[in-house]
Write a sequence for this structure.
């Protein structure tokens, strides 16, 4: 695994557990990398989700990056959330 691959894996894992969008500066500090490298990693990761048709999207919003569910699966996600509240 390349250094870039390992860094992208770490970024993805942190974004998965983040409760709010994370600024590039914060992410760069966590993975001990240059901001420009991290920004490029995030853009590549976002594009890769799109290319494979993932149910997850990575967006840069509110000054930071965050993982979201794809809008096209909103109905299924909503059904899951509502059904889990009743159990």
């Amino acid at each position: 695994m390349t250094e870039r691959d390992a860094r992208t894996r770490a970024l993805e894992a942190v974004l998965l557990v983040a409760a709010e969008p994370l600024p590039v500066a914060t992410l760069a500090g966590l993975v001990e990398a240059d901001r420009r490298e991290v920004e490029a990693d995030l853009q590549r990761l976002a594009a890769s989700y799109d290319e494979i048709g993932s149910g997850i999207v990575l967006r840069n919003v509110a000054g930071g990056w965050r993982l979201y569910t794809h809008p096209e699966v909103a109905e299924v996600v909503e059904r899951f959330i509502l059904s889990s509240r009743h159990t």
User: Anything to note?
Assistant: The chain has a mean pLDDT of 95. The two ends are 42 Å apart (CA to CA). DSSP finds four helices and two strands in the chain.
